[in-house]
């Protein structure tokens, strides 16, 4: 009984605290925060956690592959109003295909309701990609080795290819800072900007779609038999990934 | 840290206000209120990783930790009073033992190597055992007591013994107030003690804090650990920014082509999980031999040889075991020696010698 009472009281306290905050926002009634939701697909076929190590996909070069692990980082979300004023939305999101809890992102800052266009960064831009700076990402072992320029992974995509043969082979499609030569590094993030006007109100949800098939075809036809593992120190592979990723993210459904 | 303090104070406040409004029987006298004892978070963790997991229904207290420690070292938990948690989790072995498989009270060998116990509050997913079958430390501690290959007891017997003991009833009262002794309270106390087992004072930790320097060999070893072309250990075993030295996740690291123990697959029922076990932390390897879930390797050299040229292929092998078709990452003898030197910088003598963690 006592326990139940405690839980109830705790519950009420948390609830009332939240309500207070809402009231404050409500009374000012200026700022709203859109929710972002992240989905993954293979050329329009949705990919869900149950596809991991299960569903086979054929890439543009004809290799049949399975997904073991997929994590990627998006950051620096910005909303631009009709006058070109920009509001950065604080926060970043590490999305893990195996964990549906990571599919939604609510930034910690807000904008006045209205029409906006959206910008975000795949990975971290130079200013944000600070080695070891984010304790949550460190805890997720998301770091990119210092000798390769440091900072964080942008993408970790592990799986097996040639799974339709008797000798499946592993691939580690990992993307982050590119190393030109020892101690000489090149930024490797992708800045996305979508021209579509998005009306943002109190309940707006913006879907960001990630088409994994694009990683293997556009503009670089990816041959897993050549580029499969140890790609992190491979400058050429890192830059091809960056180019292919530029077409992999699109704006999905906007719900109000 | 600060926030946590406030939470404790609020909870205590709530507890006392709840109690005072209930019947006399539930009244908890002030002098019985346990003293909050938040974990002392080491600098290298504070600097690099997120806060540990402390369940809101089991805050750390001085009295709770003391009770948990006594229970951990007390054979009263086992059916014939011969075995304590500490029999298979010895302080000098970073709280594992040196056997391949541990022997239970009935002389039965389990099928798994005992696990070292440290930094458990930083296992953010809270999946315990090699196969992750226990969620939360409080639940983990329920199992060894009744496991027929371990303490082979029943909880009702344990609770009876604790109730009839000359010291325990008072210790429970001090830790939890006027509640009946239950298996839940018993494991809460044990979990509180286990959460205090923090290891963060290895040579490498000191190096991170600028208090020690690595030898050239140790530095080379770190580079091999972090090099995707050579060791590539960091994708599963942490890195200088994640000084837990584990991802606490489940992988098949290529030990076998077929499995006599399915590990995670046994628990999830998904054949894609067969042969997957939790990545152990690489801290304190100097004290935790033998290695792997079945204790198959007695030295670190054997472990390194495994990753270098001993990998076995199987359908669930992790793609990070990338050169499996060549048996492994093919380290040179020099690389192997350097990697080992680096791994040993993660061992923490102050942890195994900490008087707070030893019996009495």
UniProtKB/TrEMBL annotation, chain A:
Highest taxon of source: Bacteria
- Where do the Copper-binding protein MbnP-like domain residues begin and end? 35-222
- Per the UniProt record, one Pfam family is MbnP
Name-wise, this protein is Copper-binding protein MbnP-like domain-containing protein
TrEMBL record, chain B:
Signal peptide residues on this chain, from the entry's feature table: 1-22
Under the cellular component aspect of Gene Ontology, which terms does the record hold? periplasmic space
Residues recorded as binding heme c 1, renumbered to this chain, are 85, 88-89
Bound cofactor: record note: Binds 2 heme groups.
Extract one GO molecular function annotation from the record. Answer: metal ion binding
Q: Which residues form a coiled coil?
A: none
Q: Where in the cell is it found?
A: Periplasm
Known cofactor(s): heme
Task: Give the record's keywords alphabetically.
Answer: Heme, Iron, Metal-binding, Oxidoreductase, Periplasm, Peroxidase, Signal
Organism in which the protein naturally occurs: Mangrovimonas spongiae
**Processing after translation:** Binds 2 heme groups per subunit.
Q: Where is the Cytochrome c domain positioned along the sequence?
A: 216-347
Q: Which Pfam families match?
A: CCP_MauG (PF03150)
Q: Which InterPro entries match?
A: Cyt_c-like_dom, Cyt_c-like_dom_sf, Cytochrome_c_Peroxidase/MauG, Di-haem_cyt_c_peroxidsae, MauG/Cytc_peroxidase
**Protein name in UniProt:** Cytochrome-c peroxidase
Entry keyword annotation includes GTP-binding:
no
Q: Which residues are recorded as binding heme c 2?
A: 233, 236-237
């Amino acid at each position: 009984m006592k326990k139940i009472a405690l839980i109830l009281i705790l519950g009420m306290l948390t609830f009332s605290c939240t309500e207070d905050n809402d009231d404050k926002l409500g009374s000012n009634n200026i700022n709203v925060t859109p929710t972002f939701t992240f989905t993954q697909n293979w050329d329009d076929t949705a990919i869900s956690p149950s596809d991991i190590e299960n569903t086979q996909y054929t890439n543009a070069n004809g290799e049949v592959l399975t997904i073991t692990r997929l994590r990627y980082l998006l950051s620096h979300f910005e909303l631009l109003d009709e006058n070109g004023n920009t509001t950065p939305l604080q926060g970043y999101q590490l999305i893990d295909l195996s964990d549906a809890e990571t599919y939604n992102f609510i930034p910690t800052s807000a904008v006045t309701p209205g029409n906006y266009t959206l910008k975000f960064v795949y990975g971290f831009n130079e200013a944000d990609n600070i080695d070891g700076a984010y304790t949550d990402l460190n805890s997720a072992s998301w770091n990119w080795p210092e000798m390769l320029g440091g900072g964080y992974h942008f993408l970790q995509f592990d799986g097996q290819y040639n799974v339709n043969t008797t000798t499946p082979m592993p691939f580690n499609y990992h993307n982050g800072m590119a190393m030109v030569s020892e101690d000489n590094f090149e930024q490797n993030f992708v800045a996305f900007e979508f021209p579509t006007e998005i009306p943002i109100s109190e309940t707006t949800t913006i879907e960001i779609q990630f088409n994994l098939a694009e990683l293997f075809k556009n503009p670089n036809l990816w041959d897993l038999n050549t580029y499969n593992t140890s790609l992190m120190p491979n400058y050429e592979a890192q830059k091809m990934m960056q180019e292919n990723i530029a077409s992999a993210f699109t704006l999905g459904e906007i719900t109000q | 840290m600060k926030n946590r303090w406030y939470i404790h104070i609020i909870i205590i406040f709530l507890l006392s206000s709840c109690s005072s409004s209930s019947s006399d029987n539930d009244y908890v006298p002030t002098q019985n209120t346990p003293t909050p004892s938040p974990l002392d978070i080491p600098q290298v963790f504070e600097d690099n990783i997120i806060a540990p997991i402390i369940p809101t229904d089991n805050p750390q207290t001085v009295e709770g930790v003391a009770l948990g420690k006594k229970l951990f070292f007390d054979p009263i938990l086992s059916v014939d009073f011969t075995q304590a948690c500490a029999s298979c989790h010895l302080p000098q072995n970073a709280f594992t033992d040196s056997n391949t498989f541990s022997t239970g009270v009935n002389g039965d060998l389990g099928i798994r190597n005992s696990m070292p116990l440290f930094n458990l509050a930083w296992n953010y997913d809270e999946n315990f055992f090699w196969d992750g079958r226990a969620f939360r430390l409080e639940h983990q501690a329920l199992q060894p007591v009744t496991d027929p290959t371990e303490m082979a007891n029943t909880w009702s017997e344990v609770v009876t013994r604790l109730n009839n003991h000359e010291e325990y009833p008072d210790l429970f009262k001090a830790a939890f107030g006027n509640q009946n002794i239950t298996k839940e309270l018993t494991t809460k106390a044990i979990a509180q003690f286990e959460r205090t087992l923090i290891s963060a004072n290895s040579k490498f930790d000191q190096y991170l804090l600028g208090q020690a320097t690595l030898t050239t060999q140790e530095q080379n070893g770190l580079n091999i650990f972090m090099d995707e072309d050579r060791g590539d250990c960091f994708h599963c075993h942490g890195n200088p920014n994640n000084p837990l030295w584990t991802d606490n996740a489940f992988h098949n690291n290529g030990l076998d082509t077929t499995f006599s123990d399915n590990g995670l697959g046994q628990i999830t029922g998904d054949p894609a999980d067969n042969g997957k076990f939790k990545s152990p932390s690489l801290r304190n390897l100097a004290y935790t031999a033998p290695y792997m879930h079945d204790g198959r390797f007695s030295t670190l050299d054997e472990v390194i040889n495994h990753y270098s040229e001993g990998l076995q292929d199987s359908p669930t092998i992790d793609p990070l075991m990338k050169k499996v078709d060549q048996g492994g990452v093919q380290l040179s003898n020099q690389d192997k020696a350097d990697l080992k030197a680096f791994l040993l910088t993660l061992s923490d003598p102050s942890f195994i010698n900490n008087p707070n963690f030893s019996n009495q």
